[in-house]
Design brief:
mainly alpha, 59% helix
Length: 159
């Protein structure tokens, strides 16, 4: 089990302006996609103007409304977390950060199945394909996680 440190991270305390700026990014994306009225309804029935003002960094959303943004966008708090060197992950996320074993396992299985010495010959048989399914799915998930990380880095979000 990983031991947690009791030492607080060296971060400059957040100001109201910092919080508004950080929250404006996900609000802008959500409002562009759904409109401020739909966002306002989805986060707790506040007025459209409340969402527009927060999006435009004129005011700050109440904590309960801001937290409800996570219902629309699971990465809405990534800016806050990144500021203190943290990130969030879905509860069902696996704890594997190394994609190489999954990918090499799948490649190895496919190479063996398509070799001339394979029981079913050089072509990939239905049985060999089904036998490779678990390895291929693990490799697919690992590659998807890496691509998601690339997308978050490109978007300027915590990776």
């Amino acid at each position: 089990m990983t031991q947690r440190s009791n030492v607080l991270p060296s971060a400059i305390p957040m100001t109201v302006e910092d919080a508004r700026e950080i929250l404006a990014k996900p609000l802008l994306a959500l409002c562009s996609e759904n409109g401020p009225s739909a966002v306002a309804r989805a986060i707790g029935g506040c007025e459209d103007k409340t969402v527009r003002d927060a999006r435009d960094e004129k005011s700050t959303l109440r904590l309960d409304l801001a937290a409800n943004l996570l219902l629309l966008d699971g990465t809405a708090f990534d800016g806050f977390l990144a500021r203190v060197g943290r990130r969030s992950v879905p509860m069902e996320a696996t704890c594997s950060t190394d994609a190489l074993p999954a990918m090499t396992g799948a490649v190895h299985k496919l190479v063996m199945a398509t070799s001339g010495n394979s029981v079913d010959g050089p072509g990939l048989s239905r049985c060999e394909l089904f036998d490779s399914e678990a390895d291929l799915r693990q490799a697919f998930d690992a590659i998807g996680a890496l691509l998601g990380r690339i997308d978050r880095l490109k978007a300027g979000l915590a990776a």
